[in-house]
Amino acid sequence: MPDAPDDVHDAVLDATGVAKRFGAVQALKSASLQVKAGQVVALMGANGAGKSTFVKILTGVLKPDAGHVKIKGRESTVASPAGARRWGLVPVYQEPSLIPDLSVADNLRLGDTPLQPFRHWVSELGLPDLDSDALIRSLPLASLRIVDLARALAIEPDVLLLDELTAALPTDLVDRVLKVVRAQADAGRSVIYVSHRFKEIAAICDRATVLRDGLTVADVAIEPGIEEKIVEMMLGGAVAAAVAEERPVKPVPAQTPRLRVRGLKTGTRLTDVSFDLHKGEVLGVVALEGQGQDELFDVLAGNRKASAGAVEVDGTSKTFSHPADAIAAGLTLVPGDRAHALLMSRSVRENIAIPLLARFRNWGAIPMREEAAKVGAAIETLQIDTRAQGEVRRLSGGNQQKVTIARWIAKGVQTLLLFDPTRGIDIRTKRQIYALVRTLADQGAAVLFYTSELAEIRLACDRAVVIFNGRVVDVIDAKDADESTLMRAAYGLTERAPA
Question: What's the predicted TM-score (pTM) here?
């Protein structure tokens, strides 16, 4: 446990030893955070450090297994966001907490938000002409973030918690938000500021509390040059990246890339992404939360339309209006959330066979022998435990993830889009997936591999593109992709023109 800030007994919010377990996963081991009146405290940590779980506990979404949270010196019994509000702690989450089919005014009434203060803050934050009768679903994401913040400010919270608020905002609105947040602290209120953006933290924060592996490892004052120290704290000092068996570095092929992306944009988070992915290559994608990686994979998988930019597959321009368009072009997605990919009440065989059935458009007998052979081969390749194959929901998380990959192995892989495929699975299964990815590439497939675990870049990839603020800021060869280098690039500290 790091030294706590001076005068903890004066803290408006004092959380100590907070722990939370989800099954076998210990998301928080012992997290602590103190915020005094008039302070803006940054809550920082790498992906998976426990920030989101900590935020949900502080705001009543989750109940801690251990630890204490005191607000204004009293033991907190917050059991919901509404309860947190009654204690004077008001969160603004990453995603808007607004009902889309209601108007702005209706949402305000549901939350007992006073109208005049709300209008004042909306104007201060850059949207003076906001129509209160507009449906929430009709507003752009940036406007929704401002509505959420103005609604929070209107009820004059003692502690304002902002979770990656600026990730979806254009520069002009970011500047207004930072000005308002600093003014709140100068007026004696407290702010917890969750962000990956060092420039913003340096501009408005007084201190930073750093989490690593579910533990609070540091509480430091924000001062010039502190960025490098914080990065080391998040990584645990000199980090030795886990290295797989040595393999020769593949030169970038001269032929037409399997997938070419140029100037891709959608929404406010993905603003300008360009890269080439070649046949036989595993290209890693590194990005901290909310930097545009979700939108990138959605566009390439046909789940979302791009507003600008171009996508080429094997030299041919493609536009995807539906996932079927992407699949037809050979781009297949394994999403980060297995529940979105699997039919949980169906068998292993049925789940793997889904892409095969799409081939049979006419009435008639399905060639069961061919299907069984392909499914069986995929199960063997991924070593899927089929003892509980009556229903996929009975499989372990690792085996469920193998099923989501196996369906595309059975169909035949050209370009595989893997979004954090090893999240929440055991080390043995992770190694199997690394080996499979390398084998697929050796057989000629192209793989785009987003991972929230930086060590995986060296284990599975040939190169990595780093995305920050919705655009590619660096391209790094796997041999040079130690965790420290990747983390600095992901925080925008070593930005240079991509190769």
Answer: 0.65
